[in-house]
Amino acid sequence: MHDHSSAGQILAVLFDLDGVLTDTAEYHYLAWKRLADELGIPFTREDGDRLRGVSRRPALEIILGLSGRTGSEDEMQEWMTRKNAHYQELITRVTPADLLPGVATLLNGLRKRGIKIAVASASKNSPEVIRRLEIEDSIDQLVHGGMVERQKPFPDLFLRAARELGAEPAACIVVEDAAAGIEAAIAAGMVSVGLGPEERVGKADRVFADLEGVTADNLLGIA
Ligand code: B16
Ligand code: MG
Predict the structure, then answer these.
(1) If DSSP codes are grouped into helix, strand and coil, which group holds residue 206?
(2) Catalytic machinery residues
(3) Is residue 104 within 8 Å of residue 22, measured between CB atoms?
(4) Last residue of a domain, which of 93, 124, 153?
(5) pLDDT by residue (tens digit) across 68-84?
(6) For ligand 1, is residue 176 a contact (CB within 6 Å)?
(7) The pLDDT of residue 6 is above 80
(8) Whole-prediction pTM value?
(9) Which of 14, 15, 29, 56 to mutate to test the pocket of ligand 1 (most atoms within 8 A of CB)?
(10) CA contacts within 13 A on the Cβ side of 62
């Protein structure tokens, strides 16, 4: 546990998107898998799990590393563009039904308590996903990877979200499914909630399997 005794009241909750509000983590996996197949690189689901929350370029570097393959800067750019095109094709399937169980209720519960809500996602495609999920009106702020220089595990994205909402870092709870995201939350001096297995998010202040059945009171009771 980290010391949040000076935190006072929680004012804001910052949600990661992929793997937290919706399962676009699966679409990222499928898009990388298609690129890996095209490049003839063996790529398993376990390999895919290492890419959770990892932004585009480091993810490509991990995939290339699996086969010891390297690429010129031009090739790297082309592969990232191609993966993104695969991903954009896949997310045209996203509908409000893809909101994960418990999310809509939790967002409403937080709203009722006057808690500010941000989505803080590394994904430059997150505005499109949020639009397709039809949750634009349920959140106060969206910050995405295109708005900061340094990505998770650096705290920049979460700090930017807090600033946009006018909340001190210590008054924010971060909800994340990725190890890099939990590290970023801790580095930002925020309360962290991890979703998923202990091996992945065990450094968080509190761990749940997912958001199903997690109420606003559960979440706010953690700080
Ligand atoms: P893009 P999150 C992250 O979103 C994904 O988890 C990660 O797999 C992806 O590579 C990253 O965004 C960048 O996304 O290529 O669409 O810009 O988990 O921070 O919501
Ligand atoms: Mg995520």
Answers:
(1) strand
(2) 16, 18
(3) no
(4) 93
(5) 999 999 999 999 999 99
(6) no
(7) no
(8) 0.90
(9) 56
(10) 19
